[in-house]
Write a structure and sequence with these properties.
Elements (H helix, E strand, L loop, with lengths): L8 H22 L10 H19 L6 H5 L3 E3 L8 E3 L6 E8 L6 H8 L6 E7 L29 H16 L3 E8 L3 E2 L3 H10 L1 E2 L4 E2 L12 H5 L24 E3 H9 L4 H4 L17 H9 L10 E3 L19 H8 L9 E3 L6 H6 L1 H5 L3
Parallel strand pairs: 3-4, 3-5, 10-11
Antiparallel strand pairs: 1-2, 5-9, 6-11, 7-8
Helix pairs in contact: 2-5, 5-8
């Protein structure tokens, strides 16, 4: 005789059917969502030490007392004795060119022509992914300018870390660095250096007469909602309300005060460094949000809100903009890329295939480096 406590197969089947909805209902709360890789703690610790040094140095007086100068006071470059000593004297503002790359800098010869004759007004810094087999450019401006880099990965905050690392290095290396231009290996100049320098130094706004940063800041993009929630619901709160979230170009030119603001920040960084959800990785572009959001929240009137780097998104693929090929390079293309809806014309452009170096060099002197 069967036990009165034995459940019939029908009862077990019913219980099983009833449990399925409960599993779907409770699973998201019991099982953490899958996320993309996070920044290693060791990298974060090293970066924090670097950023603190940069902020402390920037908080010091911009120039020494006359007595110190007379005594021959000097300061060592971030790159050590290999790049000599920089005397502490009042200098013209310099432009720090920050190249963020994971491949060879094939356009270094073109940039060398752009830099020629103006080395007293600029410095060059390169952050390369350690995994990339980077061949150092033989040109003087790039030689020995590779900074200690860490791994970078698309759809992660590692690209923000690399940019902050470049900014901190340039702040430490030369107190005269006043403008910080972030570029990629596929960027090329569209104007001669004097045109860029005039653009940066002449743009002054506000009651204090400060220079402004050139960074794209947009607040009404169609993808803004998906990008804001890429890390999960309400994850960005309370530090970054949805109404304060911005989108912009990955590449920019920041003033020194904004560069210090970026490397000093901890509050917003603690949100933007969080990894995105795997299921939302196609909405995860942290480097296009962190910088415009931070600057717009902390100094809303301190930026032009448009970029000096022209990018063609008309036929983008997999999140990448149009890549210009050798047959597209011409004087007409350069003149077209210069055009801008802003006050100033574009100074740089991307994205160019490596094979474009030859055609670009042919028109460098006659068009690119001539206003």
């Amino acid at each position: 005789m069967a036990s009165p406590y034995a459940a019939s197969p029908y009862v077990l089947s019913l219980l099983l059917l009833l449990s399925i909805p409960a599993v779907f209902l409770l699973a998201p709360r019991l099982i953490p969502p899958r996320t993309l890789p996070a920044i290693p703690d060791a990298d974060e610790t090293e970066d924090l030490a670097l950023f603190r040094r940069a902020v402390l140095l920037s908080a010091a007086p911009a120039s020494p007392k006359p007595a110190d100068t007379a005594a021959g006071a000097t300061t060592t470059s971030f790159f050590g004795a290999g790049s000599g000593f920089r005397k502490k004297r009042k200098q013209q503002p310099k432009v720090a060119f920050l190249f963020l790359t994971n491949s060879d800098l094939v356009f270094a010869p073109l940039w060398e022509k752009f830099f020629a004759g103006h080395h007293g007004l600029l410095n060059v810094y390169v952050h390369a992914d350690p995994a990339s087999a980077l061949t150092l450019p033989p040109t003087p401006s790039f030689r020995g300018r590779i900074i200690p880099g860490k791994a970078t990965q698309r759809a992660s905050a590692t690209l923000i870390s690399a940019a902050r690392r470049l900014l901190a290095t340039a702040l430490l290396d030369d107190p005269a660095n006043h403008f910080f231009a972030l570029l990629s290996q596929s960027c090329v100049p569209l104007h001669p250096f004097p045109a860029l320098y005039r653009t940066l130094t002449s743009d002054i706004a506000g009651p204090k007469g400060r220079h402004r940063s050139f960074i794209e800041i947009l607040d009404a993009e169609p993808t803004l909602h998906d990008r804001y929630y890429a890390r999960g619901d309400d994850v960005m709160l309370p530090e970054v309300p949805y109404d304060s979230f911005r989108v912009g170009s990955q590449f920019f030119v920041l003033t020194r005060r904004h560069a210090v603001m970026v490397v000093r920040d901890r509050r917003l960084w603690n949100k933007f460094k969080l990894p995105c959800l795997v299921k939302r990785k196609y909405s995860c572009y942290p480097e296009e949000h962190y910088f415009p959001t931070l600057l717009d929240m902390q100094d809303p009137g301190g930026s032009t809100k448009f970029t000096l780097t022209r990018v063609n998104w008309t036929d983008s693929f997999d999140g990448h903009p149009h890549t210009y090929q050798p047959e597209e390079v011409s004087g007409e293309l350069i003149r077209d890329l210069r055009k801008s809806n802003g006050t100033y014309s574009h100074m740089f452009a991307r994205k160019f295939a490596p094979e474009c170096l030859g055609p670009l060099m042919k028109i460098a002197d006659s068009i690119i480096l001539r206003d």
